[in-house]
């Protein structure tokens, strides 16, 4: 039986498994593999981000909107709904493979919502 997401270590495993899929993906792995140089730091940062998102606290210090606008500019506006769709599918898939319960639904919902905001911000920055 799969377990519930109860603490940081569960999130660390989720983030780790999620990025293995992302990095290996033919369509979007490229964006990550060509931007992130320190993977340990990145995985830690994203674990902070989702931990804070789910359990509160102030560990994550960053600006995801700004980070994605920069990524989008670096790759000359190639990131669109297709890329977000792939990202979100891996997120949901990894959550379902590893865990069950309410926090799984919360994390799926929060990522979808945030994806919308990130995408709108990227789109606005094009004009
Ligand atoms: C759909 C929802 C998404 C969420 C919730 C999300 C979330 C995040 C977060 C929290 C960070 C860390 C930002 C920071 O503090 O540096 C990040 C970084 C990054 N994201 Fe996303 N992301 C999403 C979609 C995407 C997509 C579709 C792409 C590209 C195809 C992408 C590419 C990147 C890259 C390359 C970084 C590293 C930026 C850097 O370190 O310079 N993300 N993402």
UniProtKB/TrEMBL annotation:
<keyword id="KW-0813">Transport</keyword>
<keyword id="KW-0408">Iron</keyword>
<protein>
    <submittedName>
        <fullName>Globin</fullName>
    </submittedName>
</protein>
<dbReference type="Pfam" id="PF01152">
    <property type="entry name" value="Bac_globin"/>
</dbReference>
<dbReference type="GO" id="GO:0019825">
    <property type="term" value="F:oxygen binding"/>
</dbReference>
<dbReference type="GO" id="GO:0046872">
    <property type="term" value="F:metal ion binding"/>
</dbReference>
<dbReference type="InterPro" id="IPR001486">
    <property type="entry name" value="Hemoglobin_trunc"/>
</dbReference>
<keyword id="KW-0479">Metal-binding</keyword>
<dbReference type="InterPro" id="IPR012292">
    <property type="entry name" value="Globin/Proto"/>
</dbReference>
<dbReference type="GO" id="GO:0020037">
    <property type="term" value="F:heme binding"/>
</dbReference>
<keyword id="KW-0349">Heme</keyword>
<dbReference type="InterPro" id="IPR009050">
    <property type="entry name" value="Globin-like_sf"/>
</dbReference>
């Amino acid at each position: 039986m799969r377990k519930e997401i109860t603490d940081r270590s569960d999130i660390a495993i989720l983030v780790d498994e999620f990025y293995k899929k992302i990095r290996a993906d033919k369509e979007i792995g490229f964006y990550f593999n060509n931007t992130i140089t320190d993977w340990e730091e990145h995985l830690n940062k994203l674990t902070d981000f989702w931990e804070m998102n789910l359990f509160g606290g102030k560990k994550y210090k960053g600006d995801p909107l700004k980070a994605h606008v920069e990524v989008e500019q670096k790759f000359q506006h190639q990131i669109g709904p297709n890329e977000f769709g792939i990202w979100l599918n891996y997120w949901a898939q990894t959550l379902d493979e590893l865990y069950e319960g309410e926090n799984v639904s919360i994390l799926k919902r929060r990522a979808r919502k945030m994806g919308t905001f990130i995408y709108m911000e990227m789109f606005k920055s094009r004009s």
